Amino acid sequence: MIEMSNKMEENFQRVYTALANVSVRIQDLEARLKEVEKQINQHKPEAPADLDILNMQQSLPLKSIDEVTAFENRLSQNADEYNKFMLCISRIGGRSAKENLIRIYRTIFSNEVAKQSSWKGLRNHFKINSLNSILMAIQATILVQHQFTNKEFEDITKEWFRQGGQRLNRQQKDPEEMNPQAI
């Protein structure tokens, strides 16, 4: 009887510990969600002129790391530019979160930039996860349209930039065959 009581207490402790971990994780997710909502509300587009959006779309994809850095600086310093960017990428769409994200990356970054970049900047590559304004806008856009975890966002981003060299090689071999909007 005492042995059964001890087992029940051990099981109760495991359940209690698991519940405490889940509670902490939920609080963390709620804090992140509030931060994203705050960013979305702070940078809501005020229906900028379609001409401005068209001009922004024509300047994409970014073809060099210098262009990426300059674009990031422009977005972080100018709320109007950030709003235009949010509207521009929110119009790209896709059937799933992954397809939407890949289509956004294909619109924003050239394969040359993707080849020179990685998530953490390893092996002297450009560090993509340091692009706060660009990534925040992309993540906020996808969260509004799809259910998406930070891990999924990070994994798809890492994979897309990792394959940049392969896409660039295919594009250089047969530029006619490469469709920039294809997955």
Automatic annotation (TrEMBL):
It comes from the Eukaryota. Pfam families: DUF4806. Residues 19-46 form a coiled coil. Residues 59-125 form the DUF4806 domain. Keywords: Coiled coil. InterPro entries: DUF4806. This is Uncharacterized protein LOC112457967. It comes from Temnothorax curvispinosus.
